[in-house]
Amino acid sequence: MVKQHPQHQFGGAEKIGASNSAQQVGEYLDLRDLVVVLYRKIWLIAGIVAGFLAVAATFLALTTPQFTATALLLVDPSQKNLLNPDEGFSQGGMSDAARVESEVEILRSGTVSLATVERLDLVTDPEFGPSLGLFEKLGLAFGQNENPAVGTDLLSQTLDRFMSATEIRRRGQTHLIAVSATSESATKAALLANTLAQTYIGLQIEAKVNMSMAARDLLLAQIEQARESLAQSEDALDFYVEQNLERLSREAGGIDIEQLRSELEDLRSLQVQSTAQRQALSSAYQQRDWAQIAQVLEDSALANLVGQREALIARLNTSTETTTRVDLQQELERLDALLDAEAATNLQSAKLDVENLNAEVRSKQGALRSAIFDGNLSSATLAELYDLQQKADIAQRQYKNLLSRARDLDAQSLVQMADSRIVSEALPPRQPSFPKKAMVLSFAFVLALGVGVSAAFLSEFYFGGITSVAQLANVLPIPVGGAIPKVEQQVGHLSVADTVIQAPLSPYAESVRQLRASIDLGVLTPKGKCTVVMVTSAFPSEGKSSLALALARTYAVAGKSTLLVDTDLRKPSLHQYLGLTPQTGFFDYLRYPEKLAAQSGFYDTDTLSKVGVVLGRGRADVPTDQLLQSAIFERFLDKAREAMDVIILDTSPLLPVVDAIYIARHADVVLNCVRYGGTGQTNLREALDRLARGVQPSTPVYSVLTHNRSRGSDYENTYAHPGGV
Fold first, then answer.
1. Distance from the Cα of residue 261 to its chain's centroid
2. Residues 106-138: pLDDT tens digits?
3. How crowded is residue 504: how many other Cβ atoms within 10 Å of its Cβ?
């Protein structure tokens, strides 16, 4: 049921417009009204929802599905040493969290992505490889961009696409890292995620190996210095012993020292000879000089083989027979192999002899030092010896430590383990990650429903035409006097207003009588006084002239003396609805009152009722608003009030011209006609705002819905309140 507005009183400064429409809507609507509005706009909402769902379905049909696969990595922040597992430790606390976050950023780095791109050769992949965009294709079509990107540019484009298709994210506060990859293929998505994780682990191991090798190389330089320092310390001690051997022998008081010294000198002489022989053999062997090797070794058997070889070479150079040359060549190769094996054996034996002599020299030096230290030496001599010995021991320990650490680094570089491992490999997903059909359709439905409801309320209260009495009551803050149903003009009728007389029991006639009742009950006109009813509209063709004629006929049938005046001086139309052709019109009377006062050409009587009619004749060729402001028009109305019970003024529309505004101040009640589904709501508010400028503050104004096609419930509600709805 539509709510009844309080009767609106127009004040001089009051404005009815779009600025306060929202407040009016909130003031006069309740939940039931909103439900009714939505019910009236159900087809608009359904159409919008269907459109959105169609767009969403088209999007789903045209969009290539994207699949996302995820591999899980576990980061172990503890330091690991397989050669000594007890050395592993964890820094704990915030350091562990920082370590995991650091690994996340490393995984996101371009280095890992680039290595993955190169490993999978994604530059040639149709999905991730470079391709020409729309602008590039247009440029090529118009002769631009003749040199397409190559090399590094192609790799950069592929890298950008690959990085856009991957996502690295830490799982909460755990040590787990999710490595996700998205692709048009579910299998490829799993391959990308697993390869990215494996590449990251491989680079991590490679970095640790490189770090170990770099540390080893640094130690090797320190080892060389330690070796030189050790040699210098040993040489200094040996030099001191040799330079002071006689004194040391006297102080020690032993014959063994002299004997050890003699043996050491013999060993050193052999050491020099063996070293020289080994160097000579090595040089001759590298040059394959078998004669020199036989001479150095003084080996007659080897010299005999060398002689045989030279004889074979001489025969090979002089022989011309192919068979003989082949045999000689094979024999020469056999001798070369035999000489090579013999020379290699002797060279290895020479190396072993040198190493054994070096060991004997070191042993003899140690025995000599022990004999000296065991002797009864003076405290000054002992102090000097111990100082040199201590320096040699320190250099030796340092050298051994560096050698041991270098060997450890070599071993570690071979058994390095990554600090991260794959705990769950990515599997090809069964469902695409984008687009999610259920989510897209649900979002489209919710969005469409919101847009549809918003459009329904905008259409109801701000835009579009009026389609129900309830809507009209909600849009304009004035009572609704009635709703006139749309009827087809019958054959033989001059207008639909003839239905009031020809079919008095029709819904159309009843609706006009209900409108008359609304006027009679809502207008407090003193008994015996005339009631002036003004009928207007925002625009032409809204049914005001037909309504004015029909209303006048109902008053006449009810026994009221009624005068119908066509005050639309710009475009009069009542004479057409009555089938009359006046010689003069109301415009002519107002313009030349003295000349036409005695004539009655613009006044006639309705042939179907006793309504007196003041007719218009044709379009005015001059402005007419000043005529309606004249004393002539006022005198006309005054005389008509004295003679009539009801005067109905059919005026011009409010928005195209200003005439109706000047007529409004003479009216006792105003009917504002609104055509069903026609005039926009903004125009209705503007027209009502203009009407407010001219109407008297105490004059009631009613809206009338013409050409109504709404359902019967609205039609019945229209007549539930004769005083206005």
1. 89
2. 999 999 999 999 999 998 898 888 875 555 555
3. 15
